[in-house]
Amino acid sequence: MNQFIENRAADEVPFSNVLEDLMTQNIEKHPDKMEVLKKMKGAVALNLQDIEAVVTLHFDGGKMTIDAGVVGKPALVIRTESGQVMDLNVLKIKWGLPYYFDKAGLKVMSHILAGRLKVQGMFFHPILLTRLTVIMSVM
Amino acid sequence: MALKAFSQEWMDAWLKSIQTSQEYKEIAKEWEGSVSIIVNPDPSKGIPEPIYMWTDYWHGEAKDFHYCDKAKAESANFVMSGEYIRWKQVAKKELDSTKALMQGKLKLKGDLTYVVKHVKTVNKVVDLLAALDTVFPDD
Description:
The complex is a heterodimer.
Chain A: E1 5-7, H1 14-29, H2 32-39, E2 41-48, E3 53-60, E4 63-68, E5 76-80, H3 82-89, E6 92-94, E7 97-99, H4 103-114, E8 118-120, H5 126-136
Parallel strand pairs in A: 1-4, 2-5
Antiparallel strand pairs in A: 2-3, 3-4, 5-8, 6-7
Helix pairs in contact in A: 2-5
Chain B: E1 3-4, H1 8-19, H2 22-27, E2 32-40, E3 51-58, E4 61-67, H3 70-74, E5 78-83, H4 84-91, H5 97-102, E6 106-109, H6 112-117, H7 119-130, E7 134-135
């Protein structure tokens, strides 16, 4: 366990280890993302249907806990495939917001419009979604 | 004629296919760093000992592919390891390498954010590997 991520799904969902490593390295490389993480509160479920990996990320005051499966009632439920998650990771961040008007951004938009990336709760929790995108982006 | 998987001739052919790929040069123009590949032993499949391979890339060029020892393999910028059967599946394009990482079927040591950012480079290198006419030890 590192300082800001507790991975309770490590043994059950191998993807959670990749997610933990990616988030840890990303925040260490971009300390400004830590400030975004500190503002996050709520839970997000991530369901990667093609690899049958489901985790719930709980955010609370700069700490992220990863649980296996859907735990509680997450504000956001993201259903997609592993390849599309990678596309989310390469979204550029401009002025503190995800940027959808370049090739990478348009690709993510096309996934949403085509139903390849479904985000339940996006209209009720847009700030949480924006912050999640910011901390997941490696750009 | 089919090349024996994990032989020096096979690595040379892979290196040559990368060096002569214009598409690779374009996609990989920002990639810097060595990647070692560790194939875990599987005596039942004709792999009695671990195989350590060194591959090196620099801004669209592929520099050097050869066998190495454990210490050298572990000194690469990126260390990818996994069971023989997984590498075989990747080399035959039966398993997507990114998906394999997310599923924990392959392990990566190194800067994951860098790999995510340059996933197209990784995919192209694997595509070129898969295009080789290869015979595997357990075929």
